[in-house]
Amino acid sequence: MGGMCSSPQITQAKVKVGSSSHVVLEPDPASPIILYLPPWPSLDEPLDPPIATAISVLNYVANATTVQINYRASSTLPFPTPVHDVLAGYDWVLKNLIQGPSSWHNPPRPPPLVGICGEVMGGSLATMLALTECRSQKPGGICAAALGNPIADWTFPVAETPHQAPDRVDLPDTRNQAGEPPSRKRSAVKLRPIDSWTEFANSETLSAQALISARDTFFTKPEKWFDPFASPLLFFRTASTEIPTLEAPDPGSDRPLDLATLPVKKRKARRRYPPLHSDLKLPTIRIDVGEESLLRDQGVELVERVKKSSPSYMKQAVGWDGEWLATEQTLENDDVQLVRREGVGLWGEAELTEVGVWLNNALRRHRA
Questions:
Q1: What is the distance between the alpha carbons of residues 234 and 237, in angstroms, rounded to a whole number?
Q2: How confident is the chain (368 residues) per 10-residue block, as mean pLDDT?
Q3: In angstroms, what is the C-alpha Rg of the chain?
Q4: Is the alpha carbon torsion for 311, 295, 234, 271 positive or negative?
């Protein structure tokens, strides 16, 4: 596989989003198209020539045109800049690789199918695009998404203490003879399951501090964490905390803004997504999580939320009062897949090869 990565030709296209946003592509409009979002933002100036490993692997194993969108994010280019960059790159693909080339032939070819993949922050943005640009009747609508350890919710559980004391409950002593009241109570410890954020917060590969630092850099204020376009899990449910308030630093201090109070926890409520009567049809989705990744629980929850959201299978009926009602059914298991990997589970060349094969098969099923 090593020699394969250097063979495809890499061509660059620059898409202007305020200043230029960089898109890398291998032009072959007749093939399926895969959008690839790197794990982290690009530098202010794109690499020249671009790093071709991910593009080459996906081109080869998925037999596809791979478009890499090097979105930007920094303290001077905060959210929603990366969202705008990804949307601009997607619009460029629609205009230049889908809407135009499919009509150049006589008779016109069917437009190429589009898949998307990304991990960590790129996985967050790929999830956003896959959930909002999956229009089944629109040429170029995203029909398959492969996501690796996506940051599905930037409202991290910062209110949790690193080591919570277990709950102590009193249980009646059942060792008395039948019919006799219990003479005393015995104590038992009810252990709370440790969430992945707490268990792997100090990972050397992907730590809680690193993600919180990235959040402080890429977001100007906490309410922007709660935007579903930044935290796509919030398309399917409400946040688990209230929006925290900020405490201004002392005058003349270089210290950044701090949280004045820890976020107040609240009950998560389900949201219907896609909305009723929407033309969105959720794509085929695969989510890879590392068993030792602090983002594992987010990925698992995202899979469960997508499985329980089935607008494409909704049946409409008219009630006695004329209101529209809907019944739901769970998406088929083949449409939503969870893959658990050893360790943190970040993608290397072998994992990208597996993802490319999956995307190829998923796109083939949609073409059939």
A1: 5
A2: 39 60 50 94 58 83 92 96 96 88 60 95 98 89 97 80 41 49 53 87 96 96 96 96 73 55 79 90 96 98 90 38 42 80 96 96 87
A3: 24
A4: positive
Torsion of CA 54, 196, 78, 241, to 10 degrees: 150
Candidates 308, 296, 339; CA nearest to 193 is: 296
126, 35 Cβ separation under 8 angstroms? yes
Crossing angle of helices 121-132 and 81-93, in 10° steps, is: 60
Nearest to 227 by CA among 215, 239, 216, 217: 239
Pair of tokens at residue 114:
């589009």
Structure-block tokens of residue 266: 């609240």
Distance CA 294, CA 153 (A): 12
- Indicate the pTM of the whole model: 0.80
Beta-bridge partner residues of 264: none
- What does DSSP say about strands 114-119 and 167-172: parallel, antiparallel, or unpaired? unpaired
Contact between 271 and 294 (Cβ < 8 Å): no
